[in-house]
Design goal:
With 122 residues, the chain is an alpha+beta fold. The chain is 26% helix and 19% strand. It has four helices and five strands. The chain has a three-stranded mixed beta sheet with strand order 2-1-5, covered by helices on one side. Strands 3-4 form a two-stranded antiparallel sheet. A hairpin with a 3-residue loop joins strand 1 and strand 2. The structure holds FE2/S2 (inorganic) cluster. FE2/S2 (inorganic) cluster binds next to loops.
Length: 122
């Protein structure tokens, strides 16, 4: 593979696309796409805050997990979870960004309110 090849990365669920050089980390691609993915370890596989997921059929689009990533993620790897700071992009790929926990809580409450269950949740 030519090292200068551009790779298209699509981030879901917001469908943000970015083109990056082959081999850059998913975390770099996340930043280039303008997505905020808070981390604490500076990309050293220490904080596990950069977890993203890919569909099983697209796992080969990323560099295989390192030993450090295998140790940190364990069986989550089988579910397509990767550490964005450790996974390098090799081919075009779609990546699922997890929903922010606070936004998820608000969304669940709004959905419950629409169903008339708001008093139980607030
Ligand atoms: S940035 Fe901390 S584990 Fe990836």
């Amino acid at each position: 593979m030519a090292p200068h090849k551009k790779i298209n990365v699509t981030f879901l669920p917001d469908t943000r696309r970015v083109s990056v050089p082959h081999g850059v980390s998913l975390l770099e691609a996340v930043h280039r796409a303008g997505i905020v993915l808070p981390t604490r370890c500076g990309g050293k596989a220490g904080c596990l805050m950069c977890k993203v997921s890919v569909d099983p059929g697209e796992s080969a689009a990323l560099r295989p997990p390192s030993e450090a990533e295998r140790r940190k993620l364990g069986s989550l790897l089988d579910q397509g979870v990767r550490l964005a700071c450790q996974a390098a992009v090799w081919e075009d790929v779609s990546v699922h960004i997890p929903e922010d926990p606070l936004k998820a809580a608000v969304r669940r409450r709004l959905e419950a309110a629409r169903r008339g269950e708001a008093e139980d949740l607030w």
